[in-house]
Amino acid sequence: MSGASNCGSASSSIIAVPTKQLKPIRTLSKSRGVFEELRQAICSGDLAPGTPLREAHIAKQLNVSQVPVREALLQLEHLGLVVRVQDRGTTVTKLTRREIQQMMEVRRHLELMAFHLAAQHLTDDVVLELKRHLRRIQEMVAEGDHFAVAEEDFAFHRTVWRASGNEVLEQTLERLCVAVYAFVSLKRAAAGETLKSAVKSHRKLLEDLLSRDEKRITAAVNEHINSITIPDSVAD
Fold it and tell me: Where exactly are the structural domains of the chain?
């Protein structure tokens, strides 16, 4: 696979210097800290698609050993945010139009299953969490923050996946969608695309989920997936 919000260029020999420098990790869970720092840098576009990631360079920037960096890169690879190629090292995932289209075809079917199962297991806590994410999407849209909108968008859907009660389905959707969310939102931000439709789309998803009506849920999910456009800047 050739993943994830502002695009930059990268040298083929060393890691590109992100516009926002990575912060030294001072937490006990260094592997988790490195993972979160790199994940945010990738999803925000500070580490652009195709950027080579050198363990030694990252370890020096974050003031950690190479062990937690290696562990973090394995986690990111598992989520599809980076790709490891023999003799070429690890790079930030760069998706093609065809790969995104194929992922979205699979996502449609799994997302439908997740929403229908979630409708059967809705609790007050889940509903409150979904409403909170919807409110945050609206706030971030008003600020024009593509990265934050993508984060809350993903959190909204992950709440539904978790509410489905099917852990395999939840984990599969997460692995499938993380890189697509990051890469597409990055390209949209670079193209200056509007974010206003995100609020309307997720409000309808929530309303139809709360109705527990199978036909309404199916229609809402299909409409939502169909509304996700792939920017022209994504290569075939």
Answer: 1-94, 98-226
3-class SS of residue 28: coil
Residue position matching structure tokens 């939502």: 224
| SS3 call for 107 | helix
Contact indicator for 198, 157 with CB cutoff of 8 Å: no
Domain 1-94 falls in which CATH fold?
Answer: Arc Repressor Mutant, subunit A (1.10.10)
pLDDT digits 0-9 by tens, 15-38:
444 445 666 655 548 888 998 899
Q: How many helices (H) and strands (E) does the chain have?
A: 9, 3
CA end-to-end span of the chain, whole Å? Answer: 12
pTM passes above 0.90: no
Domain 98-226: CATH superfamily, name plus number: GntR ligand-binding domain-like (1.20.120.530)
The angle formed by the CA atoms of residues 158, 47 and 160, to the nearest 5 degrees, is 5
